[in-house]
Amino acid sequence: MMVFPERHFSPFLAACLVFAAFTPATNAADMSVVQRWMSTNSGVRTIKIDFTQTRTMTSMKVPIRQSGSLWLNYGSNQFRWQVGSPPQTIVTKHNGQLYIIRTAMKKYERRSANSGDVPHGLMAMATGFPRSTSEFERKYSVQSIDTAGSTYEIVTQPKGQAGRGVKTFTFILGRDDYRLRGMEIVLSDGSYVKTAFNRVAPNAGIPGNLFTPDITGFTETKF
Amino acid sequence: MTRLHPIIVVTVIGAIAAFCILRVQFSATLYEMLPPDLPEVQGMDRLNRYFSRDGQLIVTVKAEESYLAEEAILSLSAKMEETPHLISEVFRELSLTELVTEGGGLLSWLWMNGSSENLADLESRLSAAGSPVAIGEAMASLQSGFFDQDVIVTSYDPLGFSKIGGLMDGDAGDASGPDPMASSDGTFQVMYVEGAGVDFSNYRDADVWLKKVKALVEEWEHEWIATQGEESAIEIGLTGTPAFMAEVGTEMEKDMTISVVATMLLISLLFWIMHRRTRPLSWLISAMLAILAITILIGGALFGDLSVMSAGFAAILMGLAVDYGIVLYREAMDSGGDAKALRRSVGPGILWAAATTAVVFLSLNLSSLPGLAEMGNLVAMGVVVGALVMLYGFGPVAVSFNKEVVKERSVDLTGKGVTRVSAMVLAVLVPIAAITSMAVKEMPHLEANFHPFRIRESPSMVAWQQLQSELAGRENAVPTVITGDSIEALNRELGNAAERIESAKKSHLLTDYVLPMAFIPRPEQQLKNLEAIESLLKEEARLISELNEAGFSEEGTRLTKAVFAAWKSYLGQLANGELALPTGKLAVWSIDRLFAERDGVYAALATVKPSIPEDREWVAAVCSPNTVVASLGSLGTALNERIGQDILRVFLPMMALLSAMLGLVFRHWKDLLLSLFSLVFTGCLIVLLTIWTPMSWNSFNICGLPLLFGTGLDFSIHMIFALRRSGGDVGAARAGIGKALIFCGTSSAIGFGSLASASAYGLASLGVVCAVGILANMMVAVWLLPRWYRWAHRLSS
To answer: Which of B91, B148, B153 is the mutation pick for testing A, counting most A CBs within 10 A?
Structure first.
């Protein structure tokens, strides 16, 4: 009984943001670009990224543009991701739980960070990202590595379940420092989302309560 | 008499036999050979009748990565759509854009056919007060920053028409749950291909069509590798009704041909070893081919299409019919009379032998397996034909050989070999070994989960099993067919079935189930919802306007418009007094998989998942005359139960009757006991083989027991009477009847043994057990029984 195909599209944006934080940049026209990019990970314990996201959907007349931030603490395996100012959507991970909070609606959803019910992108955030070339190759199939002005564009296909409905997943690196500058995801229906990193702050100080936002008065729900 | 060259005779009659074999139509419908009163068999029958499409091929695609699988299935479906003479339609998983185009008709029908309470909720959501909230929530979701399936679906369906989970809660499971067209990781995908241009009810046509499709797939694979590289290789599987039919039908033809040819060759070799003459052999082969041709013609006329089991009859018949020819040949050589004298001399014996053999094979009609009964009928008919052909066809030719003075260089059987001591030791040791083995290792039992008609090395079955394991929610899922003679009756039966199924789940007999309630047309409900739908239609312009204002594009409002357009169409159908049925490719395809009407009977397809598939308690809990399950898991258990009953009901009384008759034949208790002990001894040998070798009993080959019992008695009667005539002279008995028994036993064993390579597991196992059993009977009768006879009658060595 087919109504709509299950898991046809994958929520990669957030995944990519975190991935970016784990993997600050590289350079070259072959896999050595990826290797150089991965090598920039060393010594990064925490990171904060401010980004601008532009999503263009065939079903919407105009693109939706939003700004947001991502904080990661590798040591405690926690993160916080939010968009909008003031934040409209917040996702945090702590104590093995994912909290998806919609502030305007005063609602939140709680999911196990390891549960099979977790959407793919969130799962990627919850379980971590590749920090080595071999891990990268396990998760992504590289289609091409192109030069575009001052950047490299690593065009990939996510492997496994994460790749369903994703036409291409492009990482954009600076040619000078091999650090991630942004990414672009194109879905099979033609919709796409571009994310540009405005500011990346490795080893930034992160307040402990950032990962446990106050949800007093919020209603638990299932989005 | 004009002499015909043997090669010409064999060639002409062989060609006629081959022509007859090629004209045979086999039935590829395997469940027709099973007991028709079992709910599992009825389930398969109804599943096939209502929900199977003869020309619908299932194509499976397996790739290393999901994107490769998606690209491959798109590319392959495009290739297939280029051949309309071969493929009329391809149905694969739709992209979101396609779903938006196609899905409106189905969604609107589901709402209209669903409960009024759910429709009221939708009315509330789409009301002037509710729609801004719904659109606001949709926009919040779009702006949330996530970019997943839910967000994309929401962007095309901001008013939530596709949120039909609530519509079906409690009655149909989650229709938006497991994807029926792809594995959860996306590396395995399925598409349905509707064949064109041939009659798919004919397996030969289906086979020709399938070969063309395979060629097309191979061509595509070459193109794919050329463009994508070796590392992107795709594994393609073809399954579904046309693949199964083509495979089963052609395998049966192959089985019959191979077993007949192998039997002919081996019997010829045996004849050559024992008689070293070619002319009689060529006529003997010709007679056997003629018997085969006549039997096939008569069998085809009487029974129509032959089943997979009947493919084995030809070889068995060859092995039995050749014995009559040998008796005639030996008698002609010894007596030197004419054909009439020959018939007078051995004709009665041959006819009685044929009659008793026919009765033994006809006794298979007492089995619960119609497939086995059909094979028994064919062999029975064939041995009668064989006796007549040999007497009136081969007999006159055989007498001409007695004029040819050729000294035969045949094998010599003397009284040497097995001594009395060794025969007595074996008489004690073998039963003890059998009893000990049963106590120490295992008791003889029927194989669990044995499906006698399953075809081995079946690519379509491999593809089907892969499909079952890859698609989520398909493990242990059992199709359940509910029928009714009207839509109202069907809905009523569905309700009753739902209660039983729910109760079975509460009793932990089932782990899960899916009922197709929402997909079965409900005329009363549709009329009940009429007013609400009319009310919703009035809101269309306002809702579209609100969506436009919120920023949704033409694409973003397409699904909403499609839903309203479909509602208008359905209202038109209802206004004309018709039942509203969904329109659109997706809707028709989805509904056809769960609801069907044939010849005035309406059927619905549900799915249940038993906790223990092999168990039958859940079958009893779920089934009724109008609710049956196509369960392969419990079918093996059901067959074992049924055959166990058959053995008690048929075989044991038959043994008692034959033993009484044996007493009358021998009129001597020692000979009676010797004959019965020979059977017991052979039984012990077979038990040892089933315990210590891979040979095993199952619901099919156990039915060979009457055949083994019959041949065992036959052999022992012949040998004991020969010993009586010779005064216990072992050498004389072996040189005479012993030689005949060796030829008959070996030829019969060859006939059965040639089935060992048969495609159907049941037929192959029957062939092996019968071949081994007949050889054991023969060896016991020729080598051991004479020594036991002398011991029992206190004859000195």
So the answer is: B148
Please report how many Cα atoms fall inside a 13 Å half-sphere around the Cα of residue A135, on the Cβ side: 12
Tokens of B787: 């020594």
Checking if the pLDDT of B320 tops 90, the result is no
* Distance between CA atoms of residues B674 and B486, nearest Å: 65
Q: Contact B114/B149 with Cβ under 8 angstroms?
A: no
- B552 — alpha (psi -120 to 50), left (phi > 0) or beta? beta
Note whether A2 contacts B181, CB cutoff 8 Å: yes
Closest-CA distance of chain B to residue A128, Å: 17
* CATH numeric code, B1-33+277-405: 1.20.1640.10
Compute the distance between CA of residue A46 and CA of residue A124 in angstroms, rounded to an integer.
Answer: 18
Yes or no, beta carbons of B555 and A59 under 8 Å apart: yes
pLDDT more than 90, % of chain B: 30
Residues in chain B with CB shorter than 8 Å from the CB of A59 are: 155-156, 552-553, 555-556
Tell me, yes or no, if A141 comes closer than 8 A to chain B by beta carbon.
yes
* Residue A219 sits at the chain B interface (C-beta within 8 Å): no
Average of pLDDT values for B660-685? 87
Do the chains contact at A61 and B593, CB–CB below 8 Å?
no
Tell whether A120 is within 8 A of chain B (Cβ).
yes
Picking from B51, B61, B62, B67 by the largest number of A CB atoms within 10 A of its own CB, the best residue to mutate is: B67
The residues in A 154-193 lying below 8 A from B, measured between CB atoms, are: 157-161, 163-167, 185, 187-191, 193
Lowest mean pLDDT among A35-39, A85-89, A121-125: A121-125
* CATH assignment of A12-220, among 3.20.20.220, 2.40.50.100, 3.30.230.10, 2.50.20.10: 2.50.20.10
Give the pLDDT mean for B677-694: 92
Give CA angle at B522 (B520, B525), nearest 5°.
140
> Which residue from A minimizes the CA distance to B150?
A9
The helix (run of H) or strand (run of E) holding residue B604 is strand B601-610
Q: Euclidean distance between the first and final Cα of chain A, in Å?
A: 24
Alpha carbon separation from B32 to B28, B40, B592, B746 (Å, rounded)? 9, 12, 24, 33
Average pLDDT over residues B670-688: 91
For range B295-314, the mean pLDDT? 78
Instruction: Determine the 3-state secondary structure of B616 from DSSP.
Output: coil
Q: pLDDT tens across B438-474, in order?
A: 998 888 888 877 776 677 778 888 898 888 888 866 7
Dump pLDDT digits (tens) for A142-178.
889 999 889 999 998 877 666 667 788 888 989 988 8
For B175, nearest residue in chain A (alpha carbons): A1
The reply to whether residue A83 touches residue B94, judged by beta carbons under 8 angstroms, is: no
For residue B105, which amino acid is it? G
Q: For residue B162, is pLDDT > 70?
A: yes
Interatomic CA distance for residues B314 and B293, integer angstroms: 10
Q: Is the dihedral of CA B87, B89, B92, B97 positive or negative?
A: positive
ipTM of predicted complex: 0.74
Whether A115 contacts A105, CB under 8 Å? no
With an 8 Å Cβ cutoff, are B553 and A58 in contact?
A: yes
Q: What's the predicted TM-score (pTM) here? A: 0.74
For CATH 1.20.1640.10, the residue range(s) in chain B are 1-33+277-405
Contact: A60, B162; criterion CB under 8 Å: no
Does residue A14 belong to the interface with chain B, where contact is any CB pair within 8 Å? yes
Q: What single-letter amino acid sits at B641?
A: E
| pLDDT tens readout for residues A68-121 | 888 888 778 788 888 887 888 888 887 778 888 888 888 888 877 654 444 544
The listed range with the strongest mean pLDDT (B146-155, B321-330, B681-690) is: B681-690
Contact B96 A9 (CB under 8 A): yes
